[in-house]
Amino acid sequence: MLALPLSWPLEGRRVVLIGTGDWLARKLTLLRRTPASLSVYTPDDETAYEGVAPERRWPTVEDLSDATFVIVAFEDRALAEQGAALVRAAHKPLNVVDNPDLGDFHVPAIIDRGPLSIGVATGGTAPVLARETRRRIEAAVPPSEAQLAEFALRLSPHLRALLPNVDERRRFWEDVLESDAARLAREGRIDQAVDIALAAARNPQPRQGVVHLVGAGPGDPELLTLKALRLLSEADVIVYDRLVGDGIMDMARRDAERFYVGKARSNHSVPQDQIHSLLVEQARLGKRVVRLKGGDPFVFGRGGEEVEALKAAGIEVHITPGITAALGCAASTAVPLTHRDHAQSVSFITGHAKDGDFEHNPLALDWDRLAAHNHTLVVYMGIHTAQTISEKLTQHGRAPDTPVLVVENGTRPDEVRRLTCLSDLPETLRADPPKGPALLIIGEVAALYQPTAAHPAVAEPARIA
User: Fold this and answer.
1) Which helix (H) or strand (E) holds 74?
2) CA distance 174 to 170
3) At a CB cut-off of 8 Å and minimum separation 6, what does 148 contact?
4) 301-307 long-range contacts, Cβ below 8 Å, gap at least 24?
5) Is 241 a catalytic residue?
6) pTM of model > 0.85
7) 109-124 tens-digit pLDDT
8) In the 3-class helix/strand/coil scheme, how is 154-191 assigned residue by residue?
């Protein structure tokens, strides 16, 4: 962040504005919506300012002595510098409109919903971008949120006495904002909403823990579902995997307790049974737990095992799907997994077999079906078993020159693509082994991949048509 957005209480405070014309008028319009006492100084002898009688002079240093902060609003840079120098001499926090280099703080673009205000800031570098972002947020925040904020304002003073513990109050707010009281407040029935909420605060019920298995998608934070984003913002505890990137964790609630349980090949930092125990333990403490998994929890994510363990322990569990890596990589590379001319079916398999030996895998694969022509095969975690995969498919009838697209770090900024063929796959990966998680797309559709300047294919055998 270039700047830290802060909230400045203005009840009983004095704010001074110095400026001229429309620049001053716009700041007046904003600040008149606050409870601050406003003093306006302008060297302009002509402009009328609605509802305000400005003093037609420059202020003195003494005039600024009790100001909480000062805003200088001149279109002329020289006048802005003169105003800034005066405020500096008074040692007051300073904002200089459209001249961020002269001031101490910036005024963000603001969404005003009564007691609820939302600021959008760019550190003073791109105010037009901030305004455009504000416009988009404003469309998503209904006017009824102002009534909900009024409800919260009236309820809040009572809660400190009824619920002295900070964590208890936070949990109460999380629950009440999803309750009938919040619905009544949004409808404008604020007195009734406050009565219902106070009754609940006077007779608090033990909070029941819950676990949400949430798919984080293949890596791009923008591919998170809206529900996943909401659950991350509500979680008390987040238990997350190696495939969940920093960009996604940055969207989580900042004060949530975080447990990393990532696994890599031959390096299971936390065994699966310990993950089960951790989820049960945290839920039994009455916490909202998000078990965050790369891709989708039910596609090679062991989500089924975790659901079974949680249900056996009597824990409430919910599943939020995510975009699985196969779909994310297909979209990122513009390679369809099915195509009327090239593939009428698709299979997802894992290359993470026991001891790397598919023959002794208890869930033996049907290689005859997987090797069928005009069939797309997507292999998760198949880099270290690529030799076996190549041999098995060719032994069961798949052509050696079948195209294969290897997608490493799919959907992320550091995505790498390697186009090869089935017989060359092991050597391609030995010559340039992926450093991040990678997916194999095997089949005629892989030949549809078109390298770009941003994402060239590392290998592209001439025999691939």
Assistant:
1) none
2) 6
3) 116, 177, 182, 185, 186
4) 301/215, 302/272, 303/213, 305/272, 305/276, 306/211, 306/213, 306/275, 306/276, 306/279, 307/213
5) yes
6) no
7) 888 888 888 999 888 7
8) HHHHHHHHHCCCHHHHHHHHHHHCCCHHHHHHHCCCHH
What span, in angstroms and rounded, lies between the C-alpha atoms of 392 and 375? 15
Catalytic residue (choose from 104, 112, 227, 263) = 263
Please tell me the distance from the alpha carbon of residue 418 to that of residue 412, in angstroms, as a whole number.
15
Assess whether 296 carries a catalytic annotation: no
Q: What are phi and psi of 336, to 5 degrees?
A: -70, 145
- Exposure letters 135-161 (e unless 16+ CB within 10 A, then b): eeebeeeeeebbbbbbbbebbeeebee
Coil, strand or helix at 232: helix
CA-closest candidate to residue 421, choices 397, 388, 394, 385: 394
Distance (Å, whole) CA 380 – CA 353: 11
The whole-angstrom separation of Cα 100 and Cα 3 is 12
pLDDT, one tens digit per residue, over 59-86 is 999 999 999 999 999 999 999 999 999 9
* 190 contacts 381 by C-beta, under 8 angstroms: no
Query: How far, in Å, CA of 295 to CA of 381, rounded?
Result: 13
Catalytic residue among 63, 241, 296, 424: 241
Q: How many CB atoms lie within 10 A of CB 17?
A: 27
Residue 42 to residue 28: CA distance in whole angstroms:
12
